[in-house]
Specification:
Layout: E1 15-19, E2 27-33, E3 36-46, E4 60-67, H1 85-99, E5 110-120, H2 125-146, E6 159-167, E7 170-173, H3 177-181, E8 185-192, E9 197-204, H4 211-229
C-alpha cells in the first residue's frame, strides 16, 4: 500500500538537522522529520543539581519538552504551572536516552539541559527530540572542550531514535500523525550507533501481535536509526 509521502515501508521521512539555529545556546538545532519540526537547544550551567551530593564526582544532564500552542491542528495549552503526565514521560525518555550516551564523571560540576520545543507536530516528536538533542549536545560539548571547561569528551557514542509500528497489517518506519493515529502497534526505539538498546517501547493498541512482528519492527527501526546517525 502506498504511504502518504510515497515512501516505502522501510523509508524514513526527509530528515534534516540545521545547526546553530539560535544565537545564545551552546548547541541549537532545528530538527525536521518530514512535517515534524523541533527546536532543540543545549544550555550549560557550572554546578550540579541541589539534590546531588557534594561528594558526587559526576555532572548531570537533563531534558525538558514542550508542544508549542500552534504546533498541532488545534491549539494546545501552555503547561505553565503543571506538567502533564505525557510531557513528564517524554522528558524522562529524552533525558535518560541522552544520559546513556555520556560518561557523567567526565563532565564534573557541569549541568547540561536539553530543551526540546515542538513547533510543528506530525508524529514522532519524541524521537525527533532525542536525535536533535544529541546533535545539540554534541555541539555544546565541542565548545566546552574548546574553552577548557571540559578536559575530556564525555560522549561515549552517538545515539538515534525513530518511531515504527504496524499500520494496516504492515510494519512501517517513521510514522506520521495519520499513520500513528491508526496504528495497531506503536513503537519508539532508541539505539546507540553500535546497535545497543537504550529503549525499545512497543505497545499493541488493539489485538496482541506476534514475536516475529516485534523483531521486524526492531530491525526496520535499527536500519532507520543507522541512516539518521549518518546525517549528524
Amino acid at each position: 500500500m502506498t504511504r502518504l509521502e510515497n515512501r516505502k515501508n522501510d523509508e524514513t521521512r526527509t530528515v534534516k538537522f540545521t545547526r546553530n539555529y539560535t544565537k545564545h545556546a551552546l548547541g541549537s538545532v532545528l530538527t525536521e522529520f518530514g512535517d515534524t519540526k523541533v527546536i532543540t537547544t543545549a544550555s550549560v550551567e557550572i554546578g550540579k543539581p541541589k539534590w546531588m551530593s557534594k561528594d558526587d564526582a559526576r555532572g548531570w544532564l537533563t531534558a525538558e519538552y514542550s508542544l508549542l500552542p500552534s504546533s498541532t491542528s488545534t491549539r494546545c495549552q501552555r503547561e505553565r504551572s503543571k506538567v502533564s503526565g505525557r510531557t513528564q514521560e517524554i522528558q524522562r525518555l529524552i533525558g535518560r536516552s541522552l544520559r546513556a550516551c555520556v560518561d557523567l564523571e567526565k563532565m564534573p560540576d557541569v549541568t547540561i539541559t536539553i530543551d526540546a520545543d515542538v513547533i510543528q507536530a506530525d508524529g514522532g516528536t519524541r524521537t525527533a527530540s532525542i536525535c536533535g538533542g544529541f546533535v545539540a549536545l554534541s555541539d555544546a560539548i565541542e565548545k566546552l572542550l574548546a574553552d577548557g571547561t571540559l578536559k575530556e569528551n564525555p560522549i561515549l557514542e552517538p545515539i538515534g531514535a525513530i518511531s515504527a509500528g504496524i499500520v494496516d497489517g504492515e510494519v512501517r518506519l517513521d510514522l506520521n500523525y495519520e499513520e500513528d493515529s491508526h496504528a495497531q502497534v506503536d513503537s519508539n526505539v532508541v539505539l546507540t550507533k553500535s546497535g545497543k538498546i537504550i529503549e525499545f517501547q512497543t505497545t499493541a493498541e488493539g489485538e496482541p501481535y506476534e514475536f516475529e512482528k516485534m523483531m521486524e519492527i526492531f530491525n526496520i527501526a535499527s536500519k532507520g536509526i543507522s541512516e539518521i546517525i549518518e546525517k549528524y
